[in-house]
Specification:
The structure is a single chain. This protein is about 70% helix and about 0% strand. With about 325 residues, it is mostly helical. It has one domain (about 5-330). Helix 1 packs antiparallel against helix 5 and helix 12 runs antiparallel to helix 13 (about 255-270). The chain is globular.
């Protein structure tokens, strides 16, 4: 299979996953603001931090008003991480893959993209946003299910799994980092009575609340949530589960040993962290380290299997390289 084809499949999976996650965190944040008192509610700016686009947002928006943040994350084509940008690029990748994708999957994505753009202005309105984002999440989950249920288990499916699980690892780590830091500052003890509500929102941002209750069978606590989202080996969005899935996929590919070595480094980094004793500042540094491992795995996949940038046929408006540079600078201090 051509290198440009598997690259496009990889990015198709990442953009679908990115769009679904973006819709979900906006949806959950609105409910969190209703559950918390006005004086300690986190507002909307943490969602921009999760997306890694804070600098771009600050350049164009002097205030982090709800309307500006929602538009930036949902409808702004100049923001590469917006819902609109992710869906547009997912459709563009899928368009180039029509010969190898199931017809049902291409038709579903194309139809959904048309409906999304048609309803976008209405969906941004506060009253209609809940239903609009719910349809986005459900449609993209259905899309992922169609791909899983109808694709041959060949190289294309392998790179679909690699893209999906790498994006999930990335988003899970971002949500844990930003949510835990900005919802529960240590210096504000008045937040403690609402700790349970806030950590529930972290789980719901990843559709993890019900599965957490099944697995843990105890009240929602910081230590248990971190353990579940970072190291659980059964929940599909937990970092360690996703890294394990990537290893299984890589072992079916030729020349995968160097990338598996990078992946093993990421898995050991997650497995050895003393999550229960990490203070917030140390947890932040740990997530930064995990993000660097994720970028190394991505770069290893790209070096090994993808064409060089000047011959790659599909535009990839990803901020991964920029985010990596920012994290390295932050870790240096």
């Amino acid at each position: 299979m051509l290198a440009r084809v598997v690259e496009n499949v990889y990015w198709l999976a990442r953009y679908i996953e990115r769009a679904e996650n973006t819709a979900r965190i906006i949806h959950v944040n609105a409910h969190l603001l209703l559950d918390l008192p006005r004086g300690i509610a986190p507002g909307w700016l943490p969602l921009v931090d999760i997306s890694g686009s804070r600098a771009e947002f600050d350049e164009r928006h002097p205030k982090a008003e709800e309307r500006d943040v929602v538009h930036f994350l949902v409808a702004d084509l100049e923001n590469p991480g917006s819902l609109y940008s992710s869906l547009r690029l997912a459709r563009e990748n899928a368009r180039t893959l029509r010969e190898i994708l199931p017809t049902e999957a291409w038709e579903m994505l194309n139809r959904f993209y048309t409906e999304f753009t048609r309803d976008l202005a209405t969906g941004l309105a506060k009253r209609a946003r809940f239903g609009f984002l719910t349809r986005v999440v459900e449609s993209l989950q259905t899309m992922s299910g169609v791909l899983d249920g109808t694709m041959n288990r060949n190289a294309a499916h392998t790179f679909l799994m690699l893209g999906r699980n790498l994006e999930r690892t990335d988003m899970t780590s971002r949500i844990v980092d930003v949510r835990s830091a900005q919802l529960l500052p240590i210096e504000t003890p008045e937040l403690r009575p609402f700790e349970n509500v806030q950590w529930m929102s972290v789980l719901k941002s990843l559709s993890a609340y019900q599965m957490y209750r099944v697995a843990v069978r105890a009240r929602v606590r910081r230590e248990d949530v971190l353990e579940f989202l970072l190291r659980n080996e059964q929940f599909p969005r937990a970092c360690l589960f996703c890294l394990n899935q990537m290893e299984q996929a890589l072992r079916t590919l030729p020349r995968s040993e160097p990338v598996i070595g990078l992946l093993d480094g990421a898995r050991r980094f997650v497995a050895r962290a003393p999550l229960g004793t990490l203070e917030q500042s140390v947890l932040h540094e740990f997530i930064d380290g995990l993000q660097l491992h994720i970028n190394e795995v991505h770069n290893g996949i790209a070096r090994t299997y993808f064409p060089t940038p000047h011959v790659s046929g599909v535009q990839r408006l990803s901020q991964d390289g920029k985010k990596q540079s920012q994290r390295q600078t932050r870790l240096a201090f």
